[in-house]
Specification:
The chain contains 16 helices and 11 strands. The chain has 476 residues and is an alpha/beta fold. Helix 2 runs antiparallel to helix 3. The structure holds glutamine. The site of glutamine has 13 residues, from loops.
């Protein structure tokens, strides 16, 4: 068995007992990449040298008898929109093809001080816009479970790398489902933290009021370790200035879930037409297991669900159009000089950005323009408040909400590329969570055939309960 198949927990135990070294573990992951990545294409950049250097340092600490954190020496992959100093960072866009990061994102700084080992940067939809990695300017990633199918997106490279044991865990970003949906499609665990729980400093912004960085891992337990390491306030991101107590993975792990005290809500608006039969069966089967174990299951209502996608596809592009204005061919990245500055902007942005990114910049510019702002953007903000209220009301009655992560399992390449609306519809269960800012985790709930994700949604800053619930599910 390849050492890269180990979970964080298992690897940590073996490292501490000196049964394996961090260098061996890292070499195992690099070997899997060498063996599989030509086919899977999970990675855009490999950082083998950096990884081995980091691993060696951890081995030295162990040799000196120093105590190490759970993530020390464990190989990780990082989505290519999160900055690692001196490593290329492209957001899978031609406009940043040769861009090298000048500093570490806060999450990277935190992971480095925890002794993390970075094996490479993973493929994604360009600037995180998409649900299949088909929007990468460089190559599509294949789903390791069935290589004819997409791994989901936009963190498709991260999910595929974890599934294929090319790393032990990975970081992704989630603006409307980009951690949970690929986790669901590839059969791994993906956590989207509460908005504000993890610093966004050093994450290439897509839609700033929705973006969150989070882990993709093999188990809920591993996700808890990673979340502990990356969460907490950061003076470089004002939205992360939460005064809440710091999350401790041990609180989740040492205190098993009391099923008899758990109230699970099933939103009636989510189990409707459009939900594929097998997916519904798997998700209902998972919920049944909780009920059998003593949990109370009741129907709840999230009445504004029907407006969520429309609301997201106004707010998100509005923020996209503002955030992506900085890629002008002057400050950094791809540049196409023309006879004057304006022509240069046009040519650079036309050639540097892919079709989906251009579509969203145009949509966003439109909904923010004078005369349309009130009709679209302002109205969408009001609807967003209603969506948030829906969740607050539901959480007065229940502790967690369970839904499918996506309406169907991984689709085939090309199946939805010609129909953007069909692609957008696949995000129906994940987008409301970002609009409300609450945390959610996707855990695999079908084995044997194409993976299906069970989404567990929690109250603001209650990652503890959803992680405990996910862990309990893995155990039953
Ligand atoms: N698939 C969604 C979109 O295309 C979500 C993307 C994301 O979460 N980054 O916008």
């Amino acid at each position: 068995m390849s050492l890269a198949k180990l979970t964080i927990k298992e690897a940590h135990e073996k490292l501490k007992k000196r049964e394996i070294s961090a260098v061996e573990l890292t070499q195992a992951a690099l070997k899997e990449i060498e063996k599989k990545d030509e086919k899977i294409s999970a990675f855009l950049t490999l950082t083998s040298e950096l990884a081995l250097k980091q691993a060696k340092k951890v081995d030295e600490q162990i040799a000196l008898g120093e105590s190490i954190s759970p993530l020390a020496g464990v190989p990780a992959a990082v989505k290519d929109n999160i900055l690692i100093e001196d490593v290329k960072c492209t957001a899978a866009s031609k406009i940043l093809e040769n861009y090298v990061a000048a500093y570490d994102a806060t999450v990277i700084k935190k992971l480095k001080s925890a002794g993390a080992v970075f094996v490479g940067k993973t493929n994604m939809d360009e600037f995180a816009m998409g649900s299949s990695t088909e929007n990468s300017a460089f190559k599509p990633t294949r789903n390791p479970v069935d290589t004819e199918r997409v791994p989901g997106g936009s963190s498709g490279g991260s999910a595929a790398a974890v599934k294929a044991d090319e790393c032990v865990y990975a970081l992704g970003s989630d603006t409307g489902g980009s951690i949970r949906q690929p986790a669901g499609f590839c059969g791994v665990v993906g956590l989207k933290p509460t908005y504000g729980a993890v610093s966004r400093y050093g994450l290439m912004a897509m839609a700033s009021s929705l973006d969150q960085i989070g882990p993709l891992a093999k188990t809920a337990e591993d996700a808890a370790y990673i979340f502990e390491a990356i969460s907490g306030p950061d003076e470089n991101d004002a939205t992360s200035q939460s005064k809440r107590p710091v999350f401790k993975a041990d609180d989740v792990l040492s205190e098993p879930l009391n099923f008899k005290k758990l109230k699970i809500g099933i939103p009636k608006e989510y189990f409707v037409e459009g939900l594929e039969h097998e997916t519904e069966k798997a998700v209902r089967g998972a919920i049944q297991k909780f009920e059998d174990a003593g949990a109370e299951v009741k129907e709840v209502s999230l009445p504004s669900t029907g407006y969520a996608l429309a609301c997201y596809y106004i707010i998100m592009p509005a923020e996209v159009s503002a955030n992506l204005a900085r890629y002008d061919g002057i400050k950094y990245g791809y540049s196409k000089p023309e006879r004057d500055l304006f022509e240069s902007y046009l040519a650079t942005r036309h050639e540097g950005f892919g079709k989906e990114v251009r579509r969203r910049i145009m949509l966003g510019t439109y909904v923010l323009s004078s005369g349309y702002y009130d009709a679209y953007y302002l109205k969408a903000q009001k609807v967003r408040a209603l969506i948030k209220k829906d969740f607050e009301n539901a959480f007065k009655e229940v502790d967690v909400i369970m839904t499918p992560t996506s309406p169907s399992p991984a689709f085939k390449f090309g199946e939805k590329t010609d129909d953007p609306l069909a692609m957008y519809l696949a995000d129906i269960y994940t987008v409301p969570v970002n609009l409300a800012g609450v945390p959610a985790i996707s855990v695999p709930c079908r084995e044997g055939s194409l993976p299906i994700g069970l989404q567990i949604i929690g109250r603001h800053f209650d990652e503890k309960t959803i992680l405990q619930t996910a862990l309990a599910y893995e155990r039953i």
